[in-house]
Amino acid sequence: NVYLEQRLYKEKNNRIIVANSLLCKRHVEKYYRVPESRIRVIYHGVDHVLFNPHNAAAARSETRRAFGIEEHSPVILFVSNNWKRKGLSTLLHALGLNRSERPLFHLAVVGRGNPKTYAGLAEKLGLSKQVHFIGHTDDILRYFGIADLVVLPTLYDSFGNVCLEGMACGLPVITSSSSGASELIRNGENGYVLNNPTDHKELADLLRLCSDPGRLKIMGRIAREISLQYTPARNALETVEVCRQVVAEASKPNKHGARKYFKNRDTHA
């Protein structure tokens, strides 16, 4: 709860706060009054051995056939276990605005959720044949493989792993500025950042910019290259460096000659 969070962020209860995005860092500064000097940003990493274009494409044709999606039809992938917070309604309304546009996007909705409400909305918007509610899966690569674009117009996400995983699979990404993963997006190069996560007209305009399959592939290659910077090894090394800094600070004697936290023995990083 909020009380416990406030206690955790008090200086006496921590030395350094690790945030997984600049967005998260700003929120810790603003809402918990933690000074910038006590916050480090360490982005998540992605396993490129698993998440890569080759693995993703292995079952592309087979999976598209299973859902009645033609090979040349562009597919948007939406992945979440909280469809409301991650902006599925905004995405459906954006597709509704573009339903007369060509090419016609299909939408694959992956994750836990009750499709009844959203299926009704899709039908109301004339999208019933375009929207595929897949549900929970233990094989997310299969659905990265059928996609040409990842879209996550989230109301809030401290990071958003699906965006980085999609990039690693060679997919451009559209996500909102309320997602930490937007910090990895270069507008027009590897995707787009939606300024207002509830503005389906703005999202519809961004989707129109992604209507050229050739351009999507170029953006996907750039997305893949950018993703290569973010690995589990880098995450681990940066985390270890923070730990070393904490231990070094804690081992310094104070003005009375006593060490701050390690009173009985020297501690070395």
List the helices and strands and how they pair.
Elements (H helix, E strand, L loop, with lengths): L1 H7 L8 E3 L2 H11 L6 E3 L11 H5 L2 H7 L8 E5 L8 H10 L8 E5 L4 H10 L6 E5 L4 H7 L2 E4 L8 H8 L4 E4 L14 E4 L5 H9 L4 H15 L4 H20 L18
Parallel strand pairs: 1-2, 3-4, 3-6, 4-5, 6-7, 7-8
In words, what does this structure look like?
The protein is of the alpha/beta class. The chain contains 11 helices and 8 strands. The chain has helices at 2-8, 22-32, 53-57, 60-66, 88-97, 115-124, 140-146, 161-168, 200-208, 213-227, 232-251, and strands spanning 17-19, 39-41, 75-79, 106-110, 131-135, 149-152, 173-176, 191-194. A 6-stranded parallel sheet has the order 5-4-3-6-7-8, sandwiched between helices. Strands 1-2 form a two-stranded parallel ribbon. Helix 5 crosses helix 9 (200-208) and helix 8 (161-168) crosses helix 10 (213-227). The chain is elongated and about 75 Å long. The chain starts with a helix and ends in an 18-residue tail after the last helix. Mean pLDDT is 92; it is low at 262-269.
